[in-house]
Sequence to fold (331 residues):
Amino acid sequence: MQTNIQLHSEEAFRILGDPQRVEIMRRLIQKPATISQLGQILGHHPAQIRYHISQLEKIGLVELVFVRKNKNYKEKYYQATTNSVFLNKAIFPWPSDKGQIVILGGDGPALNLLIDRTNESIGSHVFMTIPTGSLDSLIYLREGYCQIAGCHLLDLETGDFNISYIRHLFSIKNITVVTVAYRDLGLMYAEGNPHNISSVSDAVKKKLKFVNRKLGSGTRLRFDGILSDSRIESKEVIGYDLEAQTHNEVGEYIQKGMVDVGLGIASVARQMHLGFHYLFSERYDLVMSTETYQSDFVQILVENLKSKKTREEIKNLGGYDLSHGGQVLTF
Fold:
């Protein structure tokens, strides 16, 4: 018996959408049983159980394991082929006429601009991005939910970005990393800095209210690192458990007066007319299989990233260093 099976197909979702089949699976994971035994346990006619078994066999979750002969008949015992079942499926908008490439972990004006210019070059909305935490995006890439993961995860031991996380999550083989840019990250607050904020420690001492980022995001990891370095416990930070999904959402909390301060990127602060105090720069990479990188559409994306026009537009957003933009590392 396998430890687990991951299923992705529409047929698997349809078959396991029936609660009776789920209950049969639970029973057959525990121990083998006959159709008659299952019918008695579940209170259903054997013909119904036989149909459900045939459906579960169709997707490889149940198998006949042995037959016991009695005087006048044979007892067929069925058992699950796995100890657990994982159903994995992501639902996105309908793809364009030329296909679809999903980038999870995309959060920021530069990536949005790059995707817009690339889709214009293709003549179709092939690329789409969905804001997701950097760590989650790498996991989703490994599980096949997307073709590209965007991330900016700092390794506190080496000072490098993303590579150690990629090595940990993937068997380093046929993975390609494309650098988009280094971007400035810092404290965002109301325009004019009414609380005269100069650092995270300063904002905590003044008992100002923060908005945090989702657990697993690169920004959340950096914020926790700052607190650790400053010997500040999370319980001392007002609003530590208030989480925003994106940099723009952090800005909206500040604009509405719901919080005083939060970590975000300079380009978003500039777009939203917020104050900004620089803390550090971080490298934002796109991670994908080498096969995906070699595809025609991704090559168009890389060409746009290297183009003078796109680079000038990204530079004008503020807070981006494109000196490494378009660099490629393949494992």
Observations:
- The longest strand covers residues 175-189.
- The two ends are 34 Å apart (CA to CA).
- The chain has two domains: 5-87, 101-330.
- The CA atoms of residues 6 and 184 lie 39 Å apart.
